[in-house]
Amino acid sequence: MEIDGFQQLDLEKSVPSEKTTPRRIIHFVDGDIMKEYSTEEEEEEEKEEQEEQSINSTLDPSKLSWGPYLRFWAGRIASTSFSR
């Protein structure tokens, strides 16, 4: 009976909690359904992208003088070339 209890605990750990919503639900032709949950890494990347977009949206390069304007674009070009 202990083995069954141990297996039951493993199954409970492997199934994501019902509180989390699946990122994507895939429906197959044969009727099977697969729920895909996001990982912590993906969530962190999404948060970083949102923070980067909020920073970029607050800075208006058209209102900068020449020095900060060139620094802004050099930083943007460097960050996009290294991140891809």
Automatic annotation (TrEMBL):
It comes from the Eukaryota. Pfam families: FAM177. Residues 39-52 have a biased composition (Acidic residues). Signal peptide: none annotated. Residues 37-62 are annotated as: Disordered. InterPro entries: FAM177. This is Family with sequence similarity 177 member B. It comes from Callithrix jacchus. The lineage of its organism: Eukaryota, Metazoa, Chordata, Craniata, Vertebrata.
